[in-house]
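INFO worker-7 received task bundle
INFO bundle size: 2
INFO processing item 0
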Amino acid sequence: MKKITLTVLFLCAFAWSSIAQVQVGSGNIESQNVPIEPYYNFSYSQSIYLASEINATGQITGIQYYFSGTTSLESSQEWVVYLKTSDRTSFVDATDWEDITTFTQVYSGAFPVTAPGWYTINFDVPFDYNGTDNLIVAVEENQDDFDGFSDDFWNSPVTGNRSIYAYSDDLNIDPTNPTDVPDGADVFTGVAAFVPNIIFEGIQQACATPGGLTVNGVTSTSATVTWNAGDQSNWEIFVVPASEPAPTEADAGVAVSGTAQYTASNLTATTTYNVYVRAVCSGGLLSTWSSAVTFTTTIDCSAATEIEACGEEVSYTLAAGNGTLNVEACGFDTPGQEKLYVFTPEITGIYELQVTAATGGYVDYFFKPVEGATCDANGWECIDDINAAATAEIGFLTGGVSYFILVDAESITAKSQTFNIVCAPACTAPQAQFVSEANCAENEEFFVFVEVDFLGTATGATVTDDQGSPAQTIIGLGELEFGPYPIGTEVIFTVANDQDETCFNAYDAITVASCPPANDECENAISLTVGGAIEEQPVDVANAGATDSEQAEPTTCFGYDGGDIWYVLEVPASGSVTIQTGNSSTGETGMDTVITAYTGTCDALTQISCDDDGAPGFADTYSQVILTGRTPGESIYLRVYEYNNNGVGTFSISAFDASLLSVGEGSIQKSAVYPNPVKDVLNISNQDTISNVSVFNLLGQQVLSLNVNNSEAKLDFSGLTTGTYLVKVQSENGLETIKIVKN
C-alpha cells in the first residue's frame, strides 16, 4: 500500500509564510458528499477550484482535506486521486462529468485518520500547475464497506455547481463511465454549489489568502470572526447577508490591523451571513478573498411576541427555508424556521398547549423560563412535536414567572399552525409514585410505599386507600408506608390536596398477585433428576409471582424481561443431557418458554446454551437445550422464563439422557420381540396383558407410542430412520426395555 503522510493542522496555529501551501475554502458545511461519501460503500466526485482562488503556480506535491467525523474511516481506505487543469467553471447536471482519461492520477492508497483535523495526502507523482487554468480534483473511494453517518468533510459554499458526485452501496462507480448504472443498482448522484476545503501542498501565493476562518459568539446582532494571521498584520473583511453576492477584487472591505479578529455588529436577527477575508501584504499587494464562512444570527429575545393570556388563539406561518436554531429536545432535528413567544401565567399550575389547526408537517414546541435565559438552542424543554390538532402538557408553571415558548419546524418546508395555552385549573392535585413490596418469607402479605413527588398547588398531601387504613398526611414531598395487605388484594389510593379534599388524584389498583416461587432466585434453584426419557422425571413449573434475578440477562436468546425461575442438575456419566419444557401434568398448554443453561456458581455464571422454541412437536412454544461433551457430575444451572414475561401459568420441565434407560437384548423375562433387526413391523408378545408400548431414539425422544391392552402387539417401524431404538413395554408384570435395531 502506498504511503500517506498525516499531519493535523490546528486552526489556531499555522504559519503560512514558512510553508509552501495554498488553502481554498474555510467553511464548516458537512453532508455534501464530497470529496467522498463515507456512509456508502463506494463514491466518486469531481470538484473545481478556480485559478483566482489558488493564485499560485508551481509543482503541487500533495493535498489536504479537513475530516470532521468521529471514526478512523477504517472502512473507506481505498482512495484514488486525479488532477486536471481546465477552463470549466461548473457542472451543468449530475451527468456532466469531466472525462477521467484526461486527468493525471497522482495518488492511490489509504487515507487513515484519528480525529477531526487536516490530513495530508502526499502525491505519488507531483502535478505541474500552470497558475492560469482552473484545477479539477477527482477522488474515488473503492473499499466495499462503509463508515459512520457522522463521518464527513468540511466544505465551503461557492457560486455555481462546482462539485459533482455519485455514491452507492451496490455499484463501484467506474470513473471512465460514471453514468453507466446496471438495472437493479441504486446510485445516488448530484451536483452541489460547494467544494471541499482543500490545501494544495508545494505552491505558495505571493500574498497568501487567509485561512482558518471561524465564527464565534454569535448573538442576534453581532458575531466575532477570527482567522489565521500567518505573517500578515493587515486584512480586509467583508460581512454580507448570504443573499448578496461575494466581493470582487475591486470591492473593499473593512480594514483590520494587528490581531486577526473582527467583531461584526448591527446585524439583523435570524439572518444568515457570509464572511470573506483577504490579506493586505507589503507594497499594497492584495490576496484573493477567502471562501465564505457562513453563520446565522440568533433570535432577538426582546422581539418575542407576547401571549397575553391563556386561551388566546395564536396563528403563525413558518416560511420555507433554514432557521436559526436546531433544538433537539424533542428528539428530532429542527432545521426549519422558528418563532418565539413569551407567556406569563397568572396562577401556579399545570398548563397545556392545544393545537387546533396544522398544515405542512411537524412543528416542535419548547419552553423555558425567561429569567437568565438566552435565545440560543440551549436549555429548552420539549412540549411535543405536533403535525395535527392535538393537546400536549406543558407542565408545571409558576404564576407570575415569564416563559419563552418556541415553535421550530422539523423540516425546511413552509408550515402553519394555530394554538392556544390552556389555563391551569384553580387547584392542581398532588401526585405520587407507588412501589409494592411482598413479605412472603413471614406472611403472604405486601406493603405499598407511596412517594409524594409533586404537590401541585398544595403545601401538603393526604393519602388514603380503599381498604380502611388510616389516612396519612405529609407536608412537603416525601414517602409514606401503607399495609400490610393480603397477597392478591387490589388497593386503590387517593392523593388529595390537604387543604381541599375535592382536589385529588385517584390511581389504578395496585396489587401483588402472588408470592414468588421458592426457586425465584438462583441461590434457591430446585434440583432436577435426570431420567432416561422425557416422561421419566418431569417437574411442573409455575411462574406466577416470579421476579427479575440479579444475574446478568441472557446474551443469546431474546424475550427476557424478568420473571425467571431456577433449576440445577448434575451431568450424568455420559456427559450429555437434554432439558425440555412441555405441557404440565394437569393439562395446561401453550406457554412460550425459554431455557438458558449456565455453568459456574450463582455469583459467577457462564452462559453455555439457550433455546426459545426448539422443542420438537411444539410450534413457537416450548424449549429444548441439548448439552454434550460436559464433565460428568458438573452442575448445570437452568434459568427458565416466559418469553417477554407476559404470560403466567404452569408447564413442565424435564431433564433426560438415553444412557440412563435400562436396556435388555431380545427377549427379557416376560416379553418376546421379533424380528430384531426389524425392517417394517416389530412383533411383541407377553404372557401378561401389555398396556402400552413406547419407542425412543437414543436422544431420549419418544418417536412411537401404542395403547395395546392385549398380550400381543405390532409396531410399524417403516417410517423410522435406520438406527438403534429403545422399546419400552408396560405390562401387568412391570416395565421392560428392549434395544431394537432398525434396518
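INFO item 0 finished
INFO processing item 1
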Amino acid sequence: MILAVRSGRGSEDAVSWVANVMLSVGLEDRLNAEAFSDWLDNRCRCREPGMGPGGCGSLRLITGVDHQWGGHKNPECQVFAGALNHADLTAVVEHFGSVAWRNPNAVQLFVMDQEEFFFRVWMIREGALRQYAPSSPNEEDDEFWPPVGS
C-alpha cells in the first residue's frame, strides 16, 4: 500500500526535522498507545538514509489529571503527543495502521510535518487506514496562502 505522506526535505547533516504528532485513543487502547510510543522511540525508521532506527522521540499523555487545559473541567479523552525528530512519517502512519487496536474506530493519528501548516488526520475504517484531511490545497499550492496585500 502506498501512502500519500510527505516526508519533507532535509539531509543527514540537518540539525533537526520535526514532525508534530498526536494520537487519540479510547481508554481500552492506552497500553497500545504506550507500545506505539515505545516503537517510535526505539524502532521507528528515520527519514534520512544511513540513520539507524529509533531515537525519533516518543509520545506523552497530555490529558492526564496533572495537565491543565482551558476551561473548568479535565479532558475526557486520551491524547498522546510528541515532537518527533527525523521520523519516517510513512513508517509512522503504516505502523499506526498495523497496530491491533482494541477499538480501531476510536483511534486517530494527527501528523503535521515540518514546513506544513495543518495536521493530516488518519483513522481506521472497515479495517483500512484512511486519511481524513483534504489533500489540496496544500502548502505548496498558491491558493493555500492569503492573497498578497491582504
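INFO item 1 finished
INFO post-check item 1: Residues 23-136 form one domain.
INFO post-check item 1: The helical segments are 30-42, 89-98.
INFO worker-7 idle
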